[in-house]
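dumping this here before i forget
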Amino acid sequence: MVRSSTKRNRLNSAELPNRTRRNWSELPEELTFQVLSRLGAIDVLTSAQKVCTQWRRMCKHPMVWRTIDMANDHFFHEVHYDLDKMCHHAVDRSFGRVEDINVEYFGTDELLKYITDSSSGIKRLRLAHCPKITDKGLTEVAPKLPLLEDLDFTSCKNISHEPLKVIGSSCPLLKSFKLDTWFKLPEDEVYDDTVFNIEEGEDTDVEVEVNAEVNANAVAVAEVVMDGEMDADALAIAGSMHGLHHLQLFRNELTNDGLSEILDHCPRLESLDLRYCYNLNLKGDLGIKCAERIKRLQLPDNSTDIPKTDLLKKDTVWFTYRSADDVEGHVADVIIFKTIDFTDDYEW
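structure:
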């Protein structure tokens, strides 16, 4: 006999199987630490530490903060958290034991200085979409990262090739470097700062003159770019990061000359990602050299789609429960925390 969907909708928590009702405070401390270490720093500070008194105590343990992941999907446009303040607090809780830190969207030179002043054992640093981090800021903190092994710059538009030289010479253990650059076309440079104020009914000759000037400026910018600056990143890497095993130059401007320098001066390279590097021509000897030298090679035209196998990896901790409202009987993967009021909660 098939039960009606109406009866299934009447299920409540008391009717759920015992295996779905868990008391998270009863987990062994070792397992709890594993759970907390897999959550992002924002989840720990805003939710996990409010589960119970035991979890709050454990969330203050430095072991939880050896990895600080401030990934936020740009959500702070809707949720008003002070991410800079949260990151400072996370670094303080680590008591100088941070080894792996990821900062997205809100990073500044001041924050980066605070992180490196507080932690001398950082092995992995990722900065994503942080336009307020500059060449000057990176140059100043590079000598404070002697144990750095993995560095990732993703779409940080104000970082040039200059600090790469200092980083390479200051971080002798660097094995992996990712530089994801939004390729900026010459016309972008012009249009970003150009304002058109053509009033209705105004002589269109004015607009034609403006467009002509824009085109002329675009050509001038293109000539400067073509004058040797396209290989600046590649030459900085080749000149200072000789111990690299993994290199990603995503959407980079480098040419065959710059790639040749990297291959000649980075003899330990095992993987090389050159997707969207459309100034390269790998149909000749250079392409053959890459194929012979590099074990894992991503070419400019290779797909950027995420493989399905990667989507199935369990990089996130999920607390599974069966929803009483799920009439199809599906298992919903969500994170549910019981919120408890604490008088010393921080206002993020």
